Amino acid sequence: MPLAAIPSPSNAVWQLGPIPIRAYALCIIAGIVVACWVTERRLRQRGVAPGAVLDIAVWAVPAGIIGARIYHVITSPQQYFGTGGDPIKVFFIHEGGLGIWGAVAGGAVGAWIAARQLGIPLTVVADALAPGLPLAQAIGRLGNWFNNELYGGRTDLPWGLEIHRMDGGQALRDEAGQPILEEGLYHPTFAYELLWNVGVAALVLLLDRKLRLGRGRAFALYVMGYTAGRFWIEMMRTDEANTILGVRLNVWTAALVFLGALIYFLRVRGPREYLIPIGLPAAVTAPPAASDVSQVDLSAKGAGTEPAAPEGYRVVSEEQFRHWQATGETPPDATGTPETPASTASAPDAATGTDADGPEDVSADGEAAGSTSARPADRDS
Where is this region: Disordered (predicted)? Predict the structure, then answer.
């Protein structure tokens, strides 16, 4: 008998009257809250007005859930369309079946839509999200522990995992009323991934602080870190999965996504992007260098009582952003004409682009303000 083991919960669902409260759903919600909190702080450090993360989450979270379900259905079609499958169960998300790859892809589409509405470059949103997303994933993995799922092969290590025989979120019980355990102990692959994701979040925070990553490179670093861990953890799992050439589909996906993120990280260059709101004055104070509070005056315009919202944002260098925080002086536009803090920024010529001497104006629909050329393609991360 092993000297120690990790116990598993025998109950993953609680009834609140007719409403089932599922541990997995609670873990997902907690992860989303943590990711939003981290992203909000990092967006404000880059000049985005407070509360923008909620506008982004309204689009990104539902789109992520839809994307996660679509990926699961595409990669496991036999459960719904094969012999004995039931197509209507495609919509039964409460029974489980979400894929992280689809969640990230769908969430990116939702974030892109929200970012264009707010006038925030998608790369700024992605870099702000980079450490919060693995933390959310780590918290979500606790839901697999409650469900007694996603474990590896047999082990006699002291951190081996006990597994209950589950049915409908409850452990099956013997004649004495005791929960029935599977024979032996198993690798807690959910815990391996949880710890790995926390390490990825720490790595992103450390390197981002040291290298001042921008242009979506912090998000690419997260993707590389996550997929590297998912590659070896996935090969330890013993639950049923579709395979290609004898290798689990998710292993192939992790390898391909890692290569894509690596290519992006190595090819894309540029300083960290900072934003100055269009149409709002700065609260002229000299904040500490590490302040996470955007120096945007969100007081109501005129006699109204609703907080003012930026019309869009200008992409500027860190030096220009710090100067704007301290003095309220908006950097000059592409023609070299300085602007007053409360004025609406003039747009650079469409051919000028963004550089340290001529910051780009980003309007609320995501285009360079005043540009008459065709809309350029958005940069994806």
Answer: 323-381
Task: Confirm whether residue 375 is marked as ligand binding.
Answer: no
Domain ranges of the chain: 13-48+120-172+181-267, 273-381
CA distance 139 to 37: 14
Give me Rg for the CA atoms of the chain. 24
In contact, 61 and 326? CB cutoff 8 Å: no
Quote the pLDDT of residue 1: 57
Three-state helix/strand/coil letters over the chain: CCCCCECCCCECEEEECCEEEEHHHHHHHHHHHHHHHHHHHHHHHCCCCCCHHHHHHHHHHHHHHHHHHHHHHHHCCHHHHCCCCCHHHHHCHHHCCCCHHHHHHHHHHHHHHHHHHHCCCHHHHHHHHCCHHHHHHHHHHHHHHHCCCCCECEECCCCCECCECEECCEECECCCCCECECCCEECCHHHHHHHHHHHHHHHHHHHHHHHCCCCCHHHHHHHHHHHHHHHHHHCCECCCCCEECCEEHHHHHHHHHHHHHHHHHHHCCCCCCEEEEECCCECCCCCCCCCCCCCECCCECCCCCCECCCCEEEEECHHHHHHHHHHCCECCCCCCCCECCCCCCCCCCCCCCCCCCCCEEEECCCCECCCCCCCCCCCCC
8 A C-beta contact, residue 278 and residue 361: yes
The pLDDT value given to residue 330: 83
Structure tokens at 229: 């861990």
Up-side HSE of residue 275: CA atoms within 13 Å toward CB? 37
**pTM attached to this predicted model:** 0.78
The burial of 39, by beta-carbon neighbours within 10 Å (0-12 exposed, 13-18 middle, 19 or more buried), is given as: buried
The phi and psi torsions of 236 (rounded to 5 degrees) equal -85, -20
- Tell me: the pLDDT tens digits for 314-330? 899 999 999 998 888 88
d(CA 229, CA 198): 11
Rounded to whole angstroms, the Cα distance separating 262 from 282 reads 38
Residue 59: count of CB within 10 angstroms of its CB? 19
Query: What is d(CA 227, CA 254) in angstroms, rounded to the nearest whole number?
Result: 5
